[in-house]
Each structure stands twice: as structure tokens, then as C-alpha cells.
Amino acid sequence: MDYKINDKNKEIIYSVNTNLYSLEVIRGAAFVFTDRAHIFLQNDGKKYIKACIKLKENSEIGQNIDKKLKSLAGEFNNEMLNQALRKELGEQNKNIREYIVSQALFGASPESVNQKPQKDSDEELDKLLEKELKALEEEEKKSKTKDPHKILVPWEKKNKSKSKKIRK
Amino acid sequence: MTKKELGTPYIREKVAYFRERKAGNKMLITNDAGGYALLNSAAYKKFLAGSLAANSAEHKSLQKQGFIRDALDFQALIKKYGQKNYFLKQGPSLHIIVVTLRCNHKCLYCHASAGPENNEGLDMAIDTAKMTVDTIFRTTAQNITIEFQGGEPLLNWGVIKFIIEYSKEKEKIDNKNLQISLVSNFSLMDDKKLNFLVKNKVSLCTSLDGPEEIHNKNRFYSAGNSHKNVITWLKKSDDLYKKKYDICRPGALTTITKYSLPHSKAIIDQYVSLGLPKIYLRPLNPFGVAKKTWEQIGYSIDDFIKFYKKSLNYIISLNLKGKPIQEALAVTFLTKILTDRDPNHMDYRSPCGAGIGQIAYNYNGDVYTCDEGRMFGRIGDDIFKMGNVKENSYQELMNSEVVKSMCIASCLEAIPGCSDCAHKPYCGVCPVYNYSEQGSIFGQMSTNGRCKINMAVFDYLFEKMQNKKIEEIFQKWVGAN
Description:
The structure holds two protein chains of two kinds.
Chain A: E1 3-6, E2 11-17, H1 23-32, E3 37-44, E4 48-55, H2 65-92, H3 94-106, H4 118-142, H5 155-158, H6 160-167
Antiparallel strand pairs in A: 1-2, 2-4, 3-4
Helix pairs in contact in A: 1-2
Chain B: E1 19-23, E2 26-30, E3 36-39, H1 41-49, H2 57-65, H3 74-84, E4 94-98, E5 106-107, H4 126-136, E6 143-149, H5 157-174, E7 177-183, H6 191-199, E8 202-207, H7 212-218, E9 219-220, H8 226-244, E10 251-255, H9 264-273, E11 278-279, E12 281-282, H10 289-292, H11 294-297, H12 301-320, E13 326-327, H13 328-338, E14 358-361, E15 366-368, H14 371-378, E16 385-388, H15 394-398, H16 401-409, H17 431-438, H18 449-464, H19 468-477
Parallel strand pairs in B: 4-6, 4-14, 6-7, 7-8, 8-10, 10-12, 11-13
Antiparallel strand pairs in B: 1-2, 2-3, 5-9, 14-15, 15-16
Helix pairs in contact in B: 4-5, 12-18
Organism (chain A): Candidatus Schekmanbacteria bacterium GWA2_38_11
InterPro entries (chain A): HxsD (IPR023974)
Protein name (chain A): His-Xaa-Ser system protein HxsD
């Protein structure tokens, strides 16, 4: 890793190859360091990002500032590896995670996950309706007049005589 | 294809999504459904390489927790995720009513920003109380908890009685499940009031900051001995509840100030001597009066973390000797880690409970997303106000911009630093804290004090539970065995 240490400004500057680490990964690593240092990112040609890690004023430096800055740069590099792993895991498992969350939140309620599927309850409802329809039919058969209000007689038959009269 | 690809640090077909963090000598991995595993370095490498023997205990455990990608039990994971996030389907269940802002104590850290005892203009009126209860019962939640807060709520006893009786009626008519609790300093408690509260199964909670010297220093009461009142009525009410119901037994909360830091053992011993089952070691919140008195009573985040670890160690040692005292924050976190349940703690869920899980009603009918948000209203900043029970319908209150904003600001999935954190399935952020400390409800986690405390507590719990005996104690605390 090529780097440049500026003792006076308490900063270490180095270039990150964007073929190895995406901008998303570099930003992710930079965020993790915001409690310890100020991070400045800028373009360094087409393939590189220049990262400047500048210690905060209240940082405990100890005796060797070079050592502290090199250590910080090393940790930054490790964090980029970690961020790359996170990104890849996220992308690779996106569909599975979305499936689980959507099923849990928008599908069945937690209590009903282990219950029988909806199909069963629909079937039960159908059976109940069939039973009630049959009971109604039986009742109808038993009644003396099958169609007391002539509901089953077609409208044309009911109005046959009237319509003929009108035509005349 | 199961072979490791160039540049891919793990076998894609074998490894399901996980977040990771160092936990002592082990690696902690967690997943969306709240499953966790603590792996030593060799096992972690084997897990990533997909080379754990299928019949090994580690593989079986990882498979059960949902970490082995080609052996996921979708039904189990869906069920667990649903149970862990059940609160998302509920409406606001916790309703905090500030029946008065008056108080007879002058606590150094007063989070409630109480007003003077003689200013009766700070009391809730009956008509406001009725409209408040009517609003509460519009909630979509089946279970409702009404919590009386203040000021000192007993200063407005008439309104407390009215709300209890009226809400009990509403419970029957609206077919809801109601629980009522009262947070009081007990200075105005008497037998008549206590009998009424017990009869109506109102659970009681008070503040007890430890032994007399510390308690009275933090909680100044010019008309008497605050500590003595608390002890007297805690014992009396506990006896009465034990006789009557043996449920909703009185509890107490501790607020840790600078004066408390050197006395962790004495504070815990005070709780043990009273037979209290739980102690809640709460850090000082930089809200209300505490913001003004911070120089006098405040401390650094690191100081609190040291205090907490020392206290938890002592509590664990007492448990190992057979004295079953628990620490409340640890119990909340451990319930999330060790069980399939969620305790629905409003401050530790995603999104947080503000507006969608809890609502705070001020004495004048103003409605806030939470009690912490109300405290800002008290100092003239109504950023967390949802509306007023006299002016707005329940629907208008719930549709207010502040509720939506709080929801977005506390959704861990969208917070840098939280979305990838190994503790994400168990944690939660507080937008009010962020606003107070970092100037925006969207906090910056890498420099956030509350995040630092939560991280330290989680790290310590995961470190401690690697000891079998301690793990057994933790399991007992959460009723997991």
C-alpha cells in the first residue's frame, strides 16, 4: 500500500484501487471511522480514490504519530474488506431475506404460520354453504306450493296475455 | 457450483446472510430472525468455507439458527421473524398520561421538567381527561396500558380516580384489555389511595436511587424524607399486592447520577434487602433539568459503562450465591437474544415506539410521540408534538408528519452503522436522544453515546454468556428453560 504521512497535519493519505473496492465499500469503511478521524475522499484519476485520514484534535496520539497513522490506515483497509464481505453477503442473500420478511410481515400472521393453509378453511366454508343450500331445497320440496309467488315463472310467460293485448 | 470463487471470501451456496462482530475470543454472528452463534476462529473459518461436517453439533446449531444457506427452514424462520416483530402489526399500546406537571420534589435530574407544587394551572382538567381516554380507546391495539406520570401524579388524585373508573368502563364497552400503572414518589400515598389502586389492580412503580444518602441527594424533598416514604410504601404496597393477587407487584427504577457511580454494591443491596426482583440501572438522560445540571451530576459514557459492568458482575455474583436479583436492561436484551419473544420495549425496537407504539398526553391535552418528546415541549420545542386531544381526531394524530418522521428515523434497516451491526436484531435507536445530543433525529451512530452504551452492554452480555453457569442464570432471567 502506497501512502504518504503528513505529521504536521496528523494525516495519512493513500490511494484505493476502485477495481478492488467499490465506492460504496470505501464510503462504508469511511463511515465506521468517523468517530476516530476526519475522512476526506476525492478522485485520484479514473481508477483510484484518494483517502485522507486525519486524526481528530482530541485524539490520543501517544509518542509515535507515524505508528498511530499507519495503524489507522491498516484498520481502514481491514474495514474495507469487511464492508466488501457485507456488500457481497447482502447482494447474494437479498431474495431470501426479502422472502422471509415479506412472508412474516405481509403473509401469515405469526400465530397462523403453523395453522392449516387458507385452502382448508375455504373448503370448510364451501361444505357449510352446500349443506345450507341442500337444507333450503329440502324445505322447498316439503312446502305445498313450490313457487307461491311465481318467482320461477319467466317474465314473458307471466306477461304473455298482456303483451298480446298491446299488440292488438 | 460449490467451490470458492476468486475474490469471494466464503462459499456462496453454504453461507446465509449474517452480521458479525468480535465477542472476546469468539466471533458473534447474527441474522435477521435474531438467531445468533458464537464461533471460535477455526469454526468461523470452516463455516465460511462451507466445510463444517453436516453431522457436527456446530453445523446442526447453525442450521437450526438459519445460517446454512442450502438448509434453511423457511417456515421456522418466517415464524420467528414474525414473532420477533409482532409489534409492527399492533397500534399504540402504551399511553402515558401526565395528569399534572406539579411536583413536590426537586430532583437534580428531573426528566419530566416538573413545575412548582402550588401551580394548579398545571393540572389536567376532567374534560381533558375524558377526551384523552376517548382518544386512547380509538387505538387499533387490543392491549392498552395507561401509565400515570407527572410531575407527581398523586397531586391530581381526583383525575386519576376518574380516568381509572372511566377507562375501566371503556374497556368493557370497547372489548379491549386494559392495564393501568402509576409512577409516583409515594410522598402523598395513604391507605385510602392505596386500597383504591389495589382494588383496581393498578401496578405501582417508584424511583429508588439506592441508600438514603444517595437517594435523598438526587431526589430532594423539602417536606420530608423521600427515601423513607419510598421504603415505607414500597413494603406496604408489596405486602398488599402479594396478599391480594401476587401479580403486578410494585417495582422501582434507579437513575444513575455522578453520586451513584462509586456505590453500585450499596444500591443493588438496597434492592435485594427490599426483596425487589429487578433493578433498572438507567443512565442519566440529557433531557429536561438534567441538561442544566449536567456539570453537577453528569458523567462520561465510559464512566457509565464501567459502572454498569461492575454492577452487572455483582448482580451475577449474587445470583451465583442464590439471590435472584435481575438487571432490567439486561433482561430486555437477553429476552431478545435468547428467546423467540420480543418484550416490546419502546426504546429498543425498530422502528422505535414513538407514536406507533406509545403516545404521551400532556396535562393540557397536547399529544406527543413519547414522554421524552413531551419533555422537549416543556422547554418550548414542540418538534415531537402530534396535536391535541381537543383539536385533533385519532386519525389526524396518527397521520401527523412527526409520527412518520420518527418512524423513518428509527428504522434500523436504513441507519448507517445500524443496518450492518451484529446487534441490529436486538437493538433500537431513540430519535429524541439523537435530536438532543446530535442536533438531528437521524443520529450519527459512530459518535452516538447511547449507541456506545448499548454496544457495550451487548458485548458484555455475549462475553458473559460464554460461561455456562452465567448462561444458565441468563436463561432463568428470561424464562427460557
